[in-house]
Amino acid sequence: MNEFGFKFARKTILKGFTATFILLMPIAVIIISLGVGYLNISPSEIVNLIVAKILNLELDEKQKVYEAVIFNIRLPRILLASLVGCSLAVCGAVLQAMFKNPLVEPYILGISSGAAFGAALALGLGLLSGSVQILAFLFGMISVFLAYGMAKSGGEVPVINLVLAGIIVSALFTALTSLIKFFIDPHKLAGIVYWIMGSFSSADWSSLTTVTAPIIACLILLIALSWRLNVLSLSDEEAKALGVKVSRERFLILCIATLMTACAVSVSGIIGWVGLLIPHVVRLAFSSDNRIVIPISASLGAIFMVLADNIARSAFSFELPISVLTTILGAPVFMLLVRRRARRVWS
Amino acid sequence: MRFTLILLLIFLITEAQALVITDSAGNKIEIQKADRIICLNSDCLEAIIMLGAKEKIVGLGSYALQKPYAPNVTDVGKWSEPNVEAIISLSPDIVITYVNYPERQKLEEKLKGTNIKVVRLDFYKLNTMFDEFITLGKILGKEKEAGEIANYWKEQLELIKNRVKDAKPVKVYWESFTAYKAAGNGTGWQEILEIAKGENVFLNEPSSYPQVDAERIIAKNPEVVIKSVSSTTFEPYKAENATKLEEFYKDFISRPEMKQIDAGKNGRIYVICSDMLHSTFGLIAEVAYVAKILHPELFKDLNPEELHKKYVESLGLEYSGIWVYPEIKAEKMEKPERTPGFELTLAIASLVAVVVLRIAKG
Prior knowledge:
The complex is a heterodimer of chains A (347) and B (362). The mean pLDDT of chain A is 85. In chain A, helix 3 packs antiparallel against helix 13 (290-314). The longest helix of chain A has 39 residues, at 61-99. With 347 residues, chain A is mainly α. Chain A is built from 14 helices and no strands. Chain A has helices at residues 3-33, 43-54, 61-99, 111-125, 131-151, 159-183, 186-197, 205-224, 226-232, 236-241, 246-268, 274-285, 290-314, 322-345. Chain B is α/β, with parallel strands linked by helices and 362 residues long. Chain B has two domains: 16-141, 3-Layer(aba) Sandwich (Rossmann fold), CATH 3.40.50.1980; 168-325, Rossmann fold. In chain B, 41% of the residues lie in helices and 13% in strands. Chain B has helices at 2-17, 42-50, 62-65, 84-89, 126-139, 143-164, 188-195, 214-220, 231-234, 243-253, 262-265, 282-294, 304-314, 342-361, and strands at 19-22, 28-31, 37-39, 57-60, 74-75, 94-97, 117-120, 170-175, 198-200, 224-229, 269-273, 324-325. A five-stranded parallel sheet of chain B has the order 5-4-3-6-7. A five-stranded mixed sheet of chain B has the order 9-8-10-11-12, sandwiched between helices. In chain B, strands 1-2 form a two-stranded antiparallel ribbon. In chain B, helix 12 packs antiparallel against helix 13. The longest helix of chain B has 22 residues, at 143-164. At the A-B interface, helix 3, helix 7, helix 8 and helix 11 of A face helix 8, helix 9, helix 10 and helix 14 of B.
């Protein structure tokens, strides 16, 4: 093996090692995060609790409270944060590849405005608990399909049409949401504003169980389809020349990404920046190959969101809004990366 | 002699006509007459109805108009963003609004050059309410009635205050209309807690409505939880049964933290429908409810519903419906249930899988 080949192999092995490490990291982060929170539970107490649980010992009063905090409050919240982070990052990566544009985020086709409108509608009409999630989900989906329908012209769906249609649909739903906000009882207005800001504070097992299956299914599908995304990132003519039915592929992938984002948004509200930041970081650090970008984005997105939420829920005596944190944490990191590496990837 | 008498009479009449009052914003306002009145919010509407001057109202803010006791008059826009042209076209003598809303630029400045006087009275803060009621009585020429009504409610409030004077404060988590948004310092709810000897567990936070979470609530371990809900959702004055409230309550108490705190263990979690309880003298009924929730042993003979009934009837409505749930007493909690939407999600996932498979084949 000549010198160049050796270097190349070493680099590949190193990258492979880092990738494996990143893919396994979420598990470690989730376990560590269980020990983070407002209530001060020391690691030894957590170990005691787990030992007691495994040995099926009788728990004392204090341990019962800790058990509830760790398994009924922290665990579902952390898992939900990781799923949402993973969804947003993956969908960001997928849409960026599909639109061949680095500025695309998961909300480009109006899903966030649609979901916000659905949530506002449910909160405004005073429907009971679950309906907020359901309506947010439905209108998130509706807005994307509306945009897609608008963009379709003669069997083709040009990317530029899609972006424009997304802007139109977003504007429409934002206006409708504002209309609800204007007419609504001020008591309920606060609810809408906070929902739109995004938060995991009402996470519980039932919201987690509702979204886990579809999100995981979408994730697996997108990873399986990631090689096709590489083809789709070529120009339409090139892709067609390779025998890919561009519009159909695009529609399929868009459907999956939309379903995934809608699930995430419906349980967490609108959390910005993650879907833009993470795929960029992955592309800058690893490669633009979607077969790598998607799984690593999933993992990094989950890690990032869990860590941000750890700060949101435990740093102060009150909770910080999560989307504020994702932005404040993400912006400087992104800035640094872009200044150092960006030219190589997106030129 | 006759001349001086006439002079005196004229003086008296002009004096009587030019009534000068000071509103809660500290403005001295000369009131010539108050036959046509616009209220921008429901709080002043309530006060006017209690004084029996409903027929003088010619315009109302949009929300106030939706109240069941509102007269059918012209809509003059939002309480915070009134439609000034609509106000002027009704040529009212006075417009009554909150001390801080809408801002002066949106109201007084635009009404410059007209004869319309803006009177700023809140009617939702216990420490200014009684004086404001007397001021309104003066404006409406019903000072005596106003004094009687204000005195009655003041007495009720004093009675409650006296009872709880030596009581040990009870730790309370009071949640505002939004989930996990506590009612903190500077809110009307905090004012009620102070009177009813409740210790707000989220008092010392930088925000009036601090965002909290399940873990924080467990850490504070409140003895009582009170949840305010909006009446426009539950419509307590129309409610014939408590089903909607019951369902909400079931969901609320099955939140993960509720089983862990004293309030949940002892069944001391309550839902209060805010509207028509959280304004004018309804506040005193709310104080009574809360005082009884916090110190049931001190208020065995007090029935807050009677105060509430009196208040609702003073608005010309019939008292009915359910406002506080469950009934105030110590009882065991029901076992919470959980309803995962697993079936639905599986269905969606399999649908997607089928579509994908078909496309992959083709």
